[in-house]
Amino acid sequence: xxxxxxxxxxxxxxxxxxxxxxxxxxxxxxxxxxxxxxxxxxxxxxxxxxxxxxxxxxxxxxxxxxxxxxxxxxxxxxxxxxxxxxxxxxxxxxxxxxxxxxxxxxxxxxxxxxxxxxxxxxxxxxxxxxxxxxxxxxxxxxxxxxxxxxxxxxxxxxxxxxxxxxxxxxxxxxxxxxxxxxxxxxxxxxxxxxxxxxxxxxxxxxxxxxxxxxxxxxxxxxxxxxxxxxxxxxxxxxxxxxxxxxxxxxxxxxxxxxxxxxxxxxxxxxxxxxxxxxxxxxxxxxxxxxxxxxxxxxxxxxxxxxxxxxxxxxxxxxxxxxxxxxxxxxxxxxxxxxxxxxxxxxxxxxxxxxxxxxxxxxxxxxxxxxxxxxxxxxxxxxxxxxxxxxxxxxxxxxxxxxxxxxxxxxxxxxxxxxxxxxxxxxxxxxxxxxxxxxxxxxxxxxxxxxxxxxxxxxxxxxxxxxxxxxxxxxxxxxxxxxxxxxxxxxxxxxxxxxxxxxxxxxxxxxxxxxxxxxxxxxxxxxxxxxxxxxxxxxxxxxxxxxxxxxxxxxxxxxxxxxxxxxxxxxxxxxxxxxxxxxxxxxxxxxxxxxxxxxxxxxxxxxxxxxxxxxxxxxxxxxxxxxxxxxxxxxxxxxxxxxxxxxxxxxxxxxxxxxxxxxxxxxxxxxxxxx
Amino acid sequence: xxxxxxxxxxxxxxxxxxxxxxxxxxxxxxxxxxxxxxxxxxxxxxxxxxxxxxxxxxxxxxxxxxxxxxxxxxxxxxxxxxxxxxxxxxxxxxxxxxxxxxxxxxxxxxxxxxxxxxxxxxxxxxxxxxxxxxxxxxxxxxxxxxxxxxxxxxxxxxxxxxxxxxxxxxxxxxxxxxxxxxxxxxxxxxxxxxxxxxxxxxxxxxxxxxxxxxxxxxxxxxxxxxxxxxxxxxxxxxxxxxxxxxxxxxxxxxxxxxxxxxxxxxxxxxxxxxxxxxxxxxxxxxxxxxxxxxxxxxxxxxxxxxxxxxxxxxxxxxxxxxxxxxxxxxxxxxxxxxxxxxxxxxxxxxxxxxxxxxxxxxxxxxxxxxxxxxxxxxxxxxxxxxxxxxxxxxxxxxxxxxxxxxxxxxxxxxxxxxxxxxxxxxxxxxxxxxxxxxxxxxxxxxxxxxxxxxxxxxxxxxxxxxxxxxxxxxxxxxxxxxxxxxxxxxxxxxxxxxxxxxxxxxxxxxxxxxxxxxxxxxxxxxxxxxxxxxxxxxxxxx
Lengths: 674, 542
Hints:
Chain B: GO terms for molecular function: protein heterodimerization activity; RNA polymerase II general transcription initiation factor activity; transcription coactivator activity. The complex is a heterodimer. Chain A is of the alpha+beta class. Helix content of chain A is 40%, strand content 27%. Chain A contains 20 helices and 32 strands. The longest helix of chain A is centred in the N-terminal third of the chain and has 27 residues. Among the domains of chain B are: 105 residues, Histone, subunit A (Orthogonal Bundle); 160 residues, TAF6, C-terminal HEAT repeat domain (Serine Threonine Protein Phosphatase 5, Tetratricopeptide repeat, Alpha Horseshoe), CATH 1.25.40.770. The longest helix of chain B is centred in the first third of the chain and has 28 residues. The interface between A and B is large, with 78 and 50 residues.
């Protein structure tokens, strides 16, 4: 059988299907290309059966959409009746097949059949993939498939399934025996089996075995192999304190030097451009310091000290007095551990009339900002608040109390400073590290910079095209990052109107973000259920963390820069190791959205605040130690230990913040209906 | 096929003026409408999450529409008191409309302005101090923790964590008990004079299984006493309730005594009990005194300091001249109820000074206010009765003896004087003994008119009130007390001399004291004390 036979087969197929235009076009083309094909015909040894195959395959497919239903049904009943030992592995195959059957049917226009298939089998997957099913349910025409990012990414990529050798053989045998070409095709096309020799894995690992790769597994792997420098910044204040503490007699001297250096720096600052500045100066200073305190430092830092990295950004300088107060704070820091839990001061918002969208607490806990759906941003000075409530008891004193806030005149006896400027709900607010600036992001797609000293708006940053969900100051101030509904995250500096970097790659909204402690990376959490780590300097994605089952709502970076925690809509918190990109352990305990996460200053505790009206404290050190001893076995065994659950009085926890002295501040809204 | 039926599309089309929409177009549009709806909802849910809520509002849908560059739907606000509802049109199975009320402008304009909503503010409290939640009203009550902790307990133990949540004791009150409690309290408050209340008291005094109610009763009593001091029937009912509770053998009331005692003592020594003249608060005080006494008797071995504290309180009330006379009365009754020993030790030493204070109150010419005078006489009566009881108790102890030879007595007497030189009271006592006639005369001169006066008054005013004393009032007798006392003493000594010297010492002292006591009481009360002296002693006395 030569090429002509195939052409004949095609012709008959076209006739059969009634594609007259195509038939004509095909014939024309055939005639035009005939000499060429004739030439080629000698070289091509086409399997004669191919044509038959194509014919039967296509005719079967096109004519009989019920085949999907039937094929899937058979596969399903076979999987359910398979050997118990291998059953759970074989059942894993069903979901991808199901999803693709449905989408194939839709794509071919068999909407009705797709519906029946979906409705008859959705029960099976309801437990594991409820949210995905909800999304898919709405897909009703081929055009929707193209439009919907979720369906699109499903079509584009493959499922990754771990399966043991024997299960794989069983499956292949079945597919060959039943001649269910449709199923075979689907499985070949959309599932990537990772066949492992030996016994099937235990059921408990389910979460990790079926993973869906957004841009294909290879790409992710490739990205996750990139090198990242997760170490701390050179010459951080903590480090300096460590040294100062180690050599008590010399501490004054070092301090003095440090201050001298600062003064020098400040003097030079105006003359030298932004580029050189701090890093150079500081590294020089560092050398001096290390020279004096090298011996003692080695002793003190036997506990695995995080590697030091150079900052890729030009860092702003810290004023001497601020630095001094920070050092003072660090000296007075309470050491927290599983035995020594923190004190928690809780700020409760009342009478918000369901209008509060976000709350933010400054580093020292003295300022609290709330972003409201009526576009306003309100800032409370907690120190002043205490005074005023004290005055409330004696009316006379309160009346004579001079209101020193700028807005005092028009805000009357309000206890807060009102910042107005946005034209849409304020979704996020963040304090600069020293509490003198506030950034707020809003649904009007702008970010505004406010000064807490002047009580006024300084800058309005326009760049995003859609609501800006989150904005975060970098740990050193000056730089900030924002994330938006437009699926990008952007890096800004306070003195530029335009973003410095745009991070694009997420498949859906970027819902939250967090700076790495060394300011070289930012992490973003998205509605596409992944967390990505981006290099600030290059703007590249350097890690993709896959494992969450729903939208990511909160992120936190450990102070040693090694770990990251992420919380999602279902109440799961996951702990990731940045270097490997792997999940250390899922923390299960919350029953509702995890709005906020915070690491304690020395990284031994993780606090999580949730919509289920609790603050939970987790032991970080125990789990990471466990990880080391067990030498990176499967993550699900070593769960982080939950140390304490602190219920609030029907107050969902919106924000958590550890002060430098390790006092934990929390904020939430008293809500009666939840 | 789609959840949006094609009829809906057709109706919508008609509503915007497209009358000739072909069924095919409607059929094709329906799935797309469903998809768009889902899309909007997906965005709305995102907005909801970013507003940190779990409840989807119309604002979320509006902002989702804005995100898609669609004009939001106006007129549907969530959170307003009256949510819009869909109504089914009459006669049509599947035709719905929005129930939109007509609002009269006049009503709107004339309606008073609603209250301005409270402004948003922030309050601060400690959620935890070093990991432990302080029990303050801002924090969730411990009960909330209990339910989950029961399920979590084993899990935490597996981890080897110290479990520091102490499970609170479950206190379940059955419905029957609740009803019982409600009924009793209602009776106490409103119908304390009914027969039913008597039945209730009997039930309280005898029924078993009332123990779970005791904390509620004590709370109730404390509350009502503190609020209802002017409501005499209520107070009396409450004290009877206390009495019944005390009587019940199935109730362990000890743990609640500290709550109960303040209210009871209040009913004893409060300045005013009841607000009407007709209220016989004397009776209440007397009754409360017996309650107090019975509490002391029953629980003084459990609480060592119960009686001391109580007597201290009462004595303080008694000795404070600034207190109202009614308070003194209550204190005296309370002390008297605690037993003759208490009276002898605490009341009698202060008797003389007190009577000196009381005297002007009782005299017609000095105290014009009849009410006050009446009160003073009441107190006098109480004092008399208390002192009398005490001396009666004293004398009762000594059985009448055959008179011994006088010589032995004198010997012993002598010996003891020497052996117990530390006994300093002896000397004045002896002195007193030596000179009774002179003093007696003086006292008689002072007291006889007074006592006459008193008896007149009593007969005039309130003969029943001093029943106990008036009953035994007899004609004045000549008293040879010194003689009789010596005789008694001799008898006693005679008897005790045979026992150990230590006992003897004590007995001598006691004897001497009681002799002195009798003398003193006679000095103060005159012959009205006589009814309390048992007849054999009286014989000696005489």
